[in-house]
Specification:
Strand content: 15-25%
Number of helices: 11
CATH architecture of the largest domain: 2-Layer Sandwich
Distance between the termini: 67 Å
Order of helices and strands: HHEEHEHEEEHHEHHEEHEEHHEE
Bound molecules: adenosine-5'-diphosphate, magnesium ion
CATH topology of the largest domain: Heat Shock Protein 90
Amino acid sequence: MSARSQHRTDGPVEGLNLARSLRDALASGVLVVNARELIVSATHEAERLLHLPTGKTLPAPLSLLPVPLQNVVREALAGKTTITCDQLTLALNDKHSRNFHVTVQPVQRDAGSLDVVVVLSDVTRFAQLEQGIIRLDRLATLGTLSADMAHEIKNALVPVKTFVDLLLEKHHDEELAGIVSREMRRLDTIMRQMLRFGAKERSTHGPVCLHAVLEHSLRMVQHQLAGKFISLHRAFNATPDAVQGNDHQLEQVFVNLLLNAVEASGQNGSLTVATDLVAAASPRSGPPQVRITVADTGMGIAPENLDRLFEPFFTTKHHGTGLGLPITRRIVHEHQGHITVHSEPNKGTTFSVLLPAGDQAL
Ligand code: ADP
Ligand code: MG
């Protein structure tokens, strides 16, 4: 068959079919609204994007569209000009709003009346990605800056501490001495954490028994648990409990999570530390994972804070540093793992860490 005969599609009916196929294949949604504010044409994609009732008989009133889009259409009809909105936020149902790139272009019809063609595409994901990149960039700068700053402040702290110690020797004041040394220790902790956060650490990884690491981490926080009469429940069900990693770093992960849980709990709270093996969805999706959960019955986390927990310096505590969770997440990622959080205000919080399971023979 010749190339020519293959492309013989220029009759009026075929032309119409082609126009329809093209219209339906468009990645953007297209609507046509006439001067009487009636939607006279809508592609499937437009119906899908705007959550319009499918197969609605046309023409349909403009009021079917979200109000901000109605306003842009009216503006274009009245001014007979093309309007482009890079990001128009449209509330599509009670909860979700999405961002759209919208172009509304007037088109003169043969009879002299004016229609507008609305072309819209959902750019919500691009907007989110853009936000993410801006945030990452900010954090990268902050990371470098904070490591430099931490060095400087740590150096300056040495003479300050010496002079304060000397002053306190001369003027005995137990209360002042207590406050100064506590605050100095706090500053020192912050600086160490900041340095650690900024550092690209290359630690040695080897076989680790998770339950031993968890036991050790629990010993580190036993005073804090006892101080608040928090009951501890262990459900160590991962057999084997082997992972590949660095035990000191993993201990830091669990101590951070345990301390946060204690700090969020009131007197007589309850803390559950559990492990189990999670099978991979299919043999091709990698080795099984060990899941470690730290669940408290504390104050929980406000929904608006959930997205910010892992940001450096985000803290809701008077004396917090906001570095525990960013460091925790970094270590988990360095172990090819994953950390998630589930929380209900006034009920409690569960952090889950997933790590690739190690060699069974450990
Ligand atoms: P810090 O403990 O110094 O505040 P983190 O990075 O460890 O810093 O934690 C950041 C914030 O996350 C805390 O200030 C707190 O608001 C919240 N958070 C973390 N863990 C919990 C938890 N188990 N329960 C409630 N809030 C928590
Ligand atoms: Mg903390």
